[in-house]
Design goal:
Elements (H helix, E strand, L loop, with lengths): L24 H11 L5 H5 L18 E4 L10 H10 L10 H10 L13 E2 L9 E5 L7 E6 L5 E5 L2 H27 L3 H5 L3 H13 L4 H13 L2 H28 L5 H4 L17 H15 L6 H15 L1 H12 L14 E4 L18 E2 L3 E6 L4 H14 L9 E5 L10 E5 L5 E2 L3 E8 L2 E8 L8 E3 L3 E7 L5 E9 L1 E7 L2 E4 L1 E9 L10 E10 L2 E9 L2 E9 L9 H8 L7 H8 L6 E7 L3 E6 L15 E2 L26 E3 L3 E4 L6 E3 L11 H15 L4 H11 L4 H5 L1 H8 L7 H15 L17 H23 L1 H10 L26 H11 L18 H16 L3 H4 L11 H5 L4 E2 L17 E4 L6
Parallel strand pairs: 5-12, 6-28, 11-29, 16-25
Antiparallel strand pairs: 1-2, 1-30, 3-4, 4-5, 7-21, 8-20, 9-10, 9-27, 10-30, 12-13, 13-14, 14-15, 15-23, 16-17, 16-22, 17-18, 19-20, 20-21, 21-22, 23-24, 24-26
Helix pairs in contact: 1-3, 5-9, 5-11, 7-14, 8-9, 8-11, 12-13, 12-23, 15-16, 17-18, 20-21, 21-22, 22-23, 22-25
Length: 932
């Protein structure tokens, strides 16, 4: 069966990615000829003579670099889209960062400091005079100037007033990402299908996010009002900044509409007429920003959930083994606090969401009683197809899983261990690969703001990840649990529940969507209603019985109704008068309520802080499972009207200054600090970074180039090959391998391990892997060996339940994993630690935090060897076409393509695939030479 594309989130979005066949080349040429008459954007904006963008107080000494593929320009007119579809031509600056980003995969071994900007951009403040491409005063304003550089087209926004600065940021954002911003405000509002078309992928996407944040317009406005009211002068300034930013966006909409250089997707989706210019691009309003923020928070900053799945797997374990032994087995797979897990914070203990000695209030469902709450009602037309209902099912599974899309990595080394004596950092977020990219680059200089870096499109009134005058910061997804599931007891009917002893009606929130075919999306007309029942304990996600009582399982997230709160933290990070050292940085990110790991470097110090509104749970509550919705088990200090509670103090969050080095790849933060995803054990992709950086620190003299090389090398390594395969082969070769097919497979795998276990081309651009056969064998073997190793001991039912908690594999081509194929990010979720601990136990090696039982061969080395050999021989017999069956990007059997990164089209411009790398999408390389 053909592999599917990533099942999660944005990879499924369907917007104008392919122009229908009737637009043949001749027609395209004719259309283009008639579309090349719009007023030039620069003229409409108000041009100014070319000038140098003023270099602000810059302490980087030309040692700050960054990269964000595919390119800065994410807008394209209809003519440009048609040219791209017909001939592959790219608008200016749409793809010019893709090549350097791709080239690092084969270019990093010989990297030196002076060659870094072969693969990255110079991220110094300002633009040299000979590199100024354009200078614009948006809407003719005299208090802001936008200078774009020749190499990348990044906007350098300089304002003399705060309003003008933010107006310029809004204008530049719309100029670079207007269509994408419009798509995402509709995703956040649950209105994507009505806006962009009813493709099943669009249906699934809006359902997933609206389930996470089913807000009314009043809810969105209330979040803004609350953020302003509770943050004093900074809150009022944030509101003024957001309004100025919106004014800039809307001014660009008006200018591009009258000048007819607006994004061509508006024509292809039926919102504008290419001939008469009839139709309207809706202005943005402030509540759109909250809708946008809810999408980003759901994607990257909301750890937790999955308590019902946890309950089901616990019950399955207890059914098989009995309550005591089943609980022990379950806990060993959960790995809440595994002693072998790689840590970001290397010292101290930070207990959070730990297992209570005597759990209280747990509300486990009766066997067979759990039913997922329907989201979609009243389907008509194409919404009734099997593809549409399948997309709905997948959206629900993704939204309710604890295996969230958690990516990004960071490598930060203290000046004690660098060649220069200054800290060095290589860090950035893995936000996936899209066209246009979710993030955009910018430099903002104005009163109270001085920063360059990346921001999510539509939220770029501040730099969210980047550098200031003498410091840089970045983040990774942390995933600690800020989401709990409550069992609300029903009364009267299915839509009333007991709230503190009173039978209370649930609140019904609906979103009705309808669509019809367009040039961009030919999906037949259809419609449906999304309906969520909200309680004071959050939206209803499941129905069940507990001890015979009918309940609804609800999901309560500490950031629910607080999507706008983090704005204050980002404002502080951009303010040079606030951030003057690591403690100021930590104070700033404490104001960010999403679950992130934050990293900092200046010329003297490094720092780390784990952010998020971690609720203080009632004594005895086990956050892994549903609990009764009763006052005794509520969050301490919880106020349901505002969804506020008591939160753990900053001192309880993992944090430090000037640790020898920091690494993070969504691994465990600190000792005793429980993360929501399963599998944080002995083998995690964080080990790939930790092993390399620890060795660099041991040697001393770390440089920017050596740290980039460590990152790049880890990003090309198959985690299974480096950290699990050697012991698997040790078991297999415990006795001579006499079967010729198995012996040949062992030989190939051994050679690959000896070569470093990389998934890399034979030469740049060859599109063929070195060690291709060994990679094929392991990709085929892993799911076979995991099942054969564990299912006989666990039993089919428990094995299925455990794989619902944690997928078996997430190799680059594993479309079944949480991230999916063509997405770059790999090896976050998988059974690597389970296999590692089990095999080491079979070999008689010491295992800290072992599994509760032996599984491979029931603990017998000989029987385990037989299991591994049998599955290895089966895997070796699978052809390339069987292992890599092809999809809508790749032909069956094309191994390189199956792994390749493909920028998913969120608009009309397509890009070529690039070779697999497991690295941040936006990435900084920084080493400051001085401090204010």
């Amino acid at each position: 069966m053909p592999r599917r594309h990533p099942r999660t989130v944005l990879h499924r979005l369907r917007t104008p990615r392919g122009i229908p066949g009737f637009l043949k080349t001749a027609s395209v040429c004719a259309l283009i000829a008639g579309l090349l008459s719009p007023i030039a954007p620069a003229a409409a904006a108000g041009t100014a003579p070319p000038q140098v963008a003023a270099a602000a107080n810059d302490h980087c000494g030309n040692q700050c670099s960054d990269i964000l593929p595919p390119g800065q320009n994410g807008n394209a007119t209809l003519a440009q889209i048609l040219l791209n579809q017909a001939f592959g031509t790219q608008p200016e600056h749409a793809e010019d960062q893709l090549g350097p980003y791709n080239d690092l995969a084969k270019g990093h071994p010989g990297l030196t400091n002076d060659k870094i900007n072969t693969f990255f951009n110079d991220a110094s403040f300002g633009v040299p005079a000979n590199q100024v491409a354009s200078t614009v005063k948006p809407a003719g304003r005299g208090d802001v100037t936008i200078v774009r550089d020749k190499k990348t087209g990044v906007p350098h926004i300089t304002g003399t007033t705060r309003y003008g600065t933010e107006f310029g940021a809004g204008w530049a954002a719309a100029q670079d990402r207007l269509w994408l911003m419009d798509v995402f405000r509709h995703v956040g509002r649950g209105q994507l299908t009505s806006f962009a078309g009813g493709a099943p992928s669009n249906q699934g996407l809006e359902q997933q996010f609206w389930r996470h944040a089913p807000y009314t317009e009043a809810d969105l406005q209330a979040q803004i009002d609350n953020a302003v009211a509770t943050n004093g002068e900074r809150g009022r300034q944030a509101l003024a900044d957001a309004k100025a930013y919106l004014d800039g966006i809307n001014a660009y909409i008006d200018a591009s509409d009258s000048g007819r250089y607006f994004p061509g997707e508006y024509v292809l989706t039926g919102h504008k007429d290419s001939i008469t210019n009839a139709g309207k691009i809706e202005h943005f309003k402030i509540t759109d920003l909250v809708a946008l923020a809810s999408v980003i928070g759901a994607l990257f900053g909301s750890g937790g959930g999955g308590e019902v799945n946890n309950a089901l797997s616990l019950l399955a374990a207890q059914e098989k083994y009995g309550v005591a032994e089943g609980t022990r087995v379950w806990e060993s797979f959960r790995m809440r606090n595994d002693p072998e897990a790689v840590l970001t914070q290397q010292t101290g203990s930070f207990p959070y969401a730990t297992r209570p000695d005597a759990p209280q209030g747990t509300a486990l469902p009766d066997a067979g009683s759990v039913r997922a709450e329907p989201l979609v009602y009243d389907r008509t037309g194409s919404a009734t197809t099997s593809a549409a209902t399948g997309a709905s099912g997948e959206a629900a599974r993704t939204a309710l899983s604890s295996a969230k899309r958690g990516m990004s990595n960071a490598l930060v080394v203290s000046g004690k261990h660098t060649a220069s004596g200054h800290p060095v950092a290589v860090f950035g977020p893995q936000t996936g690969y899209f066209a246009p990219q979710l993030l955009l680059l910018q430099e903002i200089q104005g009163p109270g703001i001085s920063a360059r870096g990346a921001s999510f499109a539509g939220l770029s009134f501040y730099v969210e990840l980047g550098r200031g005058q003498d410091y840089a910061w970045s983040a990774t997804t942390s995933g600690q649990d800020i989401i709990d599931t409550y069992a609300v007891e029903l009364c009267q009917d299915d839509h009333h529940y007991l709230y503190r002893g009173t039978c209370t009606p649930m609140e019904k929130v609906e979103q009705k969507n309808a669509w019809k075919p367009t040039v961009a999306d030919g999906t037949a007309a259809g419609s449906y209603t999304m309906r969520v029942w909200r309680t004071k304990y959050g939206p209803v996600e499941y129905r069940a019985t507990v001890g015979g009582k009918k309940v609804a399982y609800t999901t309560l997230r500490s950031s629910f109704l607080h999507e706008a709160d983090s704005i204050i933290g980002f404002q502080m990070l951009n303010d040079p008068d606030h951030v003057k050292g690591p403690e100021d940085f930590q104070e700033a990110v404490r104001h960010i309520n999403y679950t992130f790991n934050w990293f900092y470097a200046d010329s003297e110090h490094t720092a780390y802080y784990n952010s998020g509104d971690n609720p203080v749970r009632a004594s005895g509550v086990d956050a892994e499972f549903p609990v009764w919705a009763r006052p005794a088990y509520e969050w301490r200090g919880w106020q349901p009207a505002t969804n506020t509670a008591d939160y753990t103090p900053p001192s309880a969050h993992p944090h430090s200054v000037d640790q020898d080095y920091y690494v993070s790849w969504n691994n465990k933060q600190a000792k005793d600090y429980t993360t929501a995803p399963w599998g944080n054990g002995s083998v995690h992709r964080g080990n790939l970074l930790d092993d390399r950086v620890r060795e660099l620190v041991r040697q001393g003299g770390v440089t920017r180039a050596s740290l980039v090389k460590a990152m790049a090398d880890a990003g090309l390594t198959d985690l299974r090959a480096e950290d699990v395969l050697p012991r698997l082969l040790k078991v297999v070769t415990a006795s001579p391998v006499t079967d010729p097919a198995a012996a040949a497979a062992v030989s190939r795998l051994q050679a690959w391990v000896a070569a470093g276990g990389k998934r890399t081309e034979t030469s740049a651009g060859s599109r063929t892997y070195a060690d291709a056969d060994a990679i094929r064998i392991l990709d085929a073997w892993w799911p076979l060996l995991v099942r054969a190793e564990f299912e006989p001991g666990l039993g089919s039912g428990l094995y299925r339940a455990m794989t619902a908690n944690l997928p078996v594999d997430e190799s680059p081509s594993a479309a079944h994993g949480p991230t999916g194929s063509h997405a770059g990010s790999s090896f976050q979720y998988g059974w690597w630690s389970y296999v590692d601990k089990d095999i080491r136990a079979v070999l008689g090696e010491q295992v800290k935090g072992p599994l509760a039982r032996a599984y491979c061969g029931d603990g017998s080395l000989g029987a385990c060897r037989d299991t591994l050999l049998r599955t290895l021989k089966e895997a070796a017999g699978k052809t390339m076409a069987q292992v890599y069956p092809g999809d809508d990007v790749c032909a069956a059997g094309d191994q390189w393509c199956a792994d390749s990164i493909n920028h998913r089209t969120l608009g009309g411009i397509k890009h070529r695939p690039i070779s697999w790398q497991n690295r941040p999408t936006y990435q900084q390389v920084v080493e400051f030479t001085s401090h204010r």
